[in-house]
Amino acid sequence: EPEVTQTPSHQVTQMGQEVILRCVPISNHLYFYWYRQILGQKVEFLVSFYNNEISEKSEIFDDQFSVERPDGSNFTLKIRSTKLEDSAMYFCASKQSTSGNTIYFGEGSWLTVV
Amino acid sequence: AQTVTQSQPEMSVQEAETVTLSCTYDTSESNYYLFWYKQPPSRQMILVIRQEAYKQQNATENRFSVNFQKAAKSFSLKISDSQLGDTAMYFCAFMKLDNAGNMLTFGGGTRLMVKP
Question: HEC profile for chain B?
């Protein structure tokens, strides 16, 4: 069964460093997402991406965050200058179409900022 | 904006018994989807079941079924014949159908423990 894959599974970074989290969505999917889950809290929407541009973003997704689909298969989340409060599990997800199909999640990238 | 509320932070059930997890939501939309996702200790988000708001029939997937009450904005998950592998965090989620990102709004989760 096709799946969303994410790398790395776990990354530890120094505060202030840049981090890039990578995702390969399911191949025929058109909508891509990043979600975040701080330990013990609910899953929060960060950003959605369609047709090579951001379609929606939350208040969390400020100027330190950016997304890119550099080569038609990868979908990346960049955090420019990490803060301690960026420590969380970051989930990539994808969806096939506009018709409300299910959003499928990757296994997550656990980011620890020290 | 949509909100999703799961009023049961934790629940437990004996193996082979049935358990029902509650979820309510608030929206002014008429066209939407509802989901239950399971998050085991591995923390992966796994789809359990999906319900389209326009369908009156409740969705079922093997041992999992929902009770969808659109007027009451209620969407509960029933797990029959509970198994040890059902131990996980369960999240209810809402998806508005629009021309934007179709983002999911999650509830706070219910931690389910299945006891042998």
Answer: CCEEECCCCEEEEECCCCEEECCEEECCCCCEEEEEEEECCCCCCEEEEEEECCCCCCCEECCEEEEEECCCCEEEEEECCCCHHHCEEEEEEEEECCCCCCCEEECCCEEEEEEC
Chain B residues interacting with chain A (CB cutoff of 8 angstroms): 33, 35, 37, 42-47, 50, 52, 91, 93, 95, 97, 99-109
For B6, which residue in chain A has the nearest alpha carbon? Answer: A42
Q: Which of residues 15-54 of A touch B (CB under 8 A)?
A: 31, 33, 35, 37, 41-45, 47-50
| B1-51 pLDDT, tens digit each | 789 999 999 999 999 999 999 999 999 988 899 999 999 988 888 999 999
pLDDT digits (tens, 9 = 90+) for A62-82: 999 999 998 878 999 999 999
pLDDT in tens, A32-54: 999 999 988 889 999 999 988 99
